[in-house]
């Protein structure tokens, strides 16, 4: 059973997740495609950099998953991740599939007509990329990265999580992943995620610093190494990933600055006096972030397209989409995520413990 204690909630990290989700929403609605750049002009050149806030999710996961896993056993860990991710995700996949496959909107620049019922079915697993199937919603790629990180932490949990092992892992993971990428080792690249590894590792080291109340020589060095990796990846991988339209060419210096500023904010919110901020509304904002992230893209685009077809101008159409997505987010949180995540987690944990007890008898 779990031996961990409940730590005070870092509410500014909750707020960071919400701000990141809102920034990504604005990017998707105003800067993702050439037609949007034509409609929103200078605003698109600002919100295009909000796409970089997606990388904060990986940093926060590195911190939070290590924090919530430390001192727990494998059944508790698996149940908590499955219960957290899947109930809201399944409903979001239903919504996205209905929009993409049944309604068949003409989203710009995407081959949605090629997505079929079999893609919809496999998307319910969250493992569609592993099977070469299309994501019904563009944001699902990040969930696949998270799943692979959870798998690595699960293996880590079996071995045993200690301070020294966390440091060794956070130092070696980005290095081995970088070697795998340079060596074009497809299997290791798939498992180790070279572009995301330093972000997750940064969050893990940051948790050690938070846990210990300040820097030590080894944690400072590990943090600095991962910051250097993040800066390198910002120019080498994150900037090209943002180059989605001919109208906007991202500046690598701005990309690096935004990503490193996000990392600095995470340190400030978790390792300085700001960690003691107790504004309750930040927790609420953090709680609705996942449902908002899941439903905003496909549903928002569909609403915008429908309103534009009925003569709405660009800005009012985006405003209408935000209202609809806010209502959908609230419904998904109140009627799915909040009531079912905990129940599903408890069911999964009970079953895993029963299986663990029964396994020796059946061996």
Write the layout of secondary structure elements.
Layout: H1 11-30, H2 34-40, H3 42-47, H4 54-69, H5 74-103, H6 117-123, H7 140-159, H8 163-182, H9 186-192, H10 197-212, H11 217-242, H12 252-271, H13 280-309, H14 314-362
Number of extended strands: 0
Radius of gyration: 21 Å
Structural class: mainly alpha
Determine the oligomeric state from the structure: single chain
Uncertain parts = 1-5
Main sheet characteristics: none
Q: Percent range for helical residues?
A: over 70%
Distance between the termini: 23 Å
Put simply, the count of helices is 14
What is the overall silhouette?
globular
Mean pLDDT over the residues:
92
Secondary-structure element string:
HHHHHHHHHHHHHH
Portion in strands: under 5%
Describe the structure.
The protein is mainly α and 363 residues long. The chain is built from 14 helices and no strands. The longest helix is centred in the C-terminal third of the chain and has 49 residues, at 314-362. It is globular. Mean pLDDT is 92; it is low at 1-5.
Key structural traits:
363 residues; single chain; mainly alpha; disordered N terminus
Short description:
The protein is 75% helix and 0% strand.
């Amino acid at each position: 059973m779990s031996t961990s204690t409940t730590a005070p909630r870092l509410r500014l990290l909750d707020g960071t997740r919400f701000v990141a989700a809102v920034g990504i929403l604005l990017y998707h609605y105003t800067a993702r495609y050439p037609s949007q750049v034509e409609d929103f002009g200078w605003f698109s050149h600002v919100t295009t950099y909000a796409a970089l806030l997606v990388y904060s999710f990986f940093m926060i996961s590195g911190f939070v998953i290590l924090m919530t896993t430390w001192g727990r056993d494998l059944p508790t860990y698996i149940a908590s991740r499955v219960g957290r991710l899947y109930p809201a995700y399944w409903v979001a996949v239903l919504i996205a599939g209905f929009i993409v496959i049944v309604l068949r909107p003409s989203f710009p620049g995407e081959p949605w007509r090629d997505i079929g019922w079999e893609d919809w079915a496999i998307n319910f697993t969250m493992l569609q990329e592993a099977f070469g199937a299309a994501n019904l919603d563009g944001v699902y790629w990040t969930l696949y990265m998270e799943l692979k990180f959870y798998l690595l932490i699960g293996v880590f949990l079996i071995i045993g999580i200690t301070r020294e092992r966390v440091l060794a892992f956070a130092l070696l993971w980005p290095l081995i992943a970088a070697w795998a990428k340079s060596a074009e080792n497809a299997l290791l690249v798939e498992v180790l995620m070279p572009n995301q590894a330093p972000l997750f590792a940064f969050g893990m080291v940051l948790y050690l610093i938070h846990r210990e109340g300040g820097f030590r020589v080894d944690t400072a060095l590990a943090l600095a190494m991962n910051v250097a990796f993040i800066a390198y990846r910002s120019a080498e991988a994150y900037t090209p990933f943002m180059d989605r339209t001919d109208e906007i060419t991202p500046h690598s210096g701005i990309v690096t600055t935004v990503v490193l500023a996000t990392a600095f904010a995470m340190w400030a919110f978790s390792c300085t006096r700001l960690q003691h901020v107790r504004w309750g509304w930040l927790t609420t904002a953090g709680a609705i972030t996942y449902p908002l992230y899941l439903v905003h893209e496909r549903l928002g685009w569909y609403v915008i397209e429908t309103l534009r077809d009925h003569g709405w101008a660009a800005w009012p159409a985006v405003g209408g989409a935000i209202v609809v997505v806010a209502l959908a987010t609230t419904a998904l949180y109140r009627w799915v995520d909040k009531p079912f995540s905990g129940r599903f987690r408890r069911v999964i944990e009970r079953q895993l413990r029963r299986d663990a007890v029964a396994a020796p008898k059946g061996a």
